[in-house]
Fold RNA polymerase subunit sigma.
Amino acid sequence: MLAVRDQRDRQAFARLFAFYAPRVKGVLMRSGMGSAAAEDVVQDVMLAVWHKAAQFDPARAQVSGWIYRIARNRQVDIARKAGRPLPEEVETETPPEADPGALMALAEESGKLRQALAKLKPEQREVITRAYLGDLTHGEIREQTGLPLGTIKSRIRLGLERLRHELKDLRSE
């Protein structure tokens, strides 16, 4: 979805379409819509996904939830036009469980990152933590700490260089 949103990648959209179109159709049909009508709605939904891709924000919703919400809204619009009662909310598919091996690898990488952060000078660790884990801008860090902007940028740069050095083994694995 990010490739569709950011680069208007047609191949990524084709994969998205191939994955979600049958699922959206299934959800629509389970809520009482006929096959032909469901296919028409799926076409509208996927066209909306393409045109509204710039509005997708992964921080606000998962791709599946965003697409199913568009489908639900289209279904409601159709029901309103026809003067029929609104369909009941249908429970959507839950995303597949994460791979246990991937979860263990992520936990191991997180541990190595924590160890590498612990090796930084406290002032470097503080600004990196505020910038990357606290999601603060350099200006916001300056307001909170009172440090000059150049000092903040230098500490982040030097700290990131040190982290890269400490974590270089992760890239080769």
Q: What stands out?
A: The chain is about 75% helix and 0% strand. Residues 3 and 9 are 6 Å apart (CA to CA). The domain at 2-82 is CATH 1.10.1740.10 (Rna Polymerase Sigma Factor; Chain: A).
